[in-house]
Design goal:
Layout lengths: L7 E7 L12 E5 L6 H9 L17 E6 L3 E5 L10 H16 L7 E9 L6 H12 L4 E6 L6 H12 L10 E3 L8 H12 L2
Parallel strand pairs: 2-4, 2-5, 5-6, 6-7
Antiparallel strand pairs: 1-3, 3-4
């Protein structure tokens, strides 16, 4: 790999759109509902245990976290959506900063790939489908990561993957990558997609 993962650090946790960095590095954004495993995925990709904090209170964090990888790549972690107990004011703040990433990001032209996480056991929620449609409408290249792929048994996993591939909101040709932060399944395949999309 052309990246030194030892040189990975949290560059900024942006709570406002005007805090988004303007560093000229390709960006890969991670999106998904609260508690779908985004932090665990980022930690697994980087070979770290706690660079991305795994929250014990889903939906608590409303920041966009930018991780600088070897000064060559920026991994961007959007706040999780769909947390039922979140206050209306928090939901409004989430919507503003998430929408702001796509509409007011000074480096939006450097966004090369979106990684949309869907819990394989749960399947795509209404919020997931809304996000999938948004990525398609914005013409943002994306892959779908089927997280927590180690949880279903073999039969249920096959059925869940088949149902996910049949989801109308996932266009034909979009790659679906089963992923487990526990076993490491899908890690190398996702890195291949990231490096190919960013040209690193």
């Amino acid at each position: 790999m052309a990246l030194n993962l030892q040189k990975a650090y949290l560059f900024i946790s942006a709570g406002r759109v005007d805090q988004f960095p303007a560093k000229p590095q390709p960006q890969v954004v991670f999106s998904g509902r609260s508690n779908v495993g985004k932090s665990s995925l980022i930690n697994a990709l980087l070979g770290r245990r706690s660079l991305a904090r795994v929250s014990s209170s889903p939906g608590k964090t409303i920041t966009v976290n930018f991780y600088d990888i070897d000064a060559k790549l920026m991994l961007v972690d959007l706040p999780g959506y769909g947390f039922a107990r979140r206050a209306a004011s928090d939901k409004k703040q989430w919507s503003a900063i998430t929408d702001g990433y796509f509409t007011k990001n000074p480096n939006f032209d450097l966004l090369k790939l979106a990684v949309q996480l869907v819990d394989l056991e749960v399947g795509p929620t209404a919020d997931d489908k809304m996000m999938l449609n948004y990525l398609t409408q914005m013409d943002i290249p994306f892959v779908v990561v089927a997280s927590k792929a180690d949880k279903p048994n073999k039969t249920n996993r096959a059925k869940a993957l088949e149902a996910l591939r049949a989801t109308p909101e996932i266009p034909e040709g979009v790659k679906i990558i089963p992923f487990s932060s526990k076993t490491g399944e899908g890690k190398d395949e996702l890195w291949r997609e990231i490096l190919a999309a960013t040209g690193i």
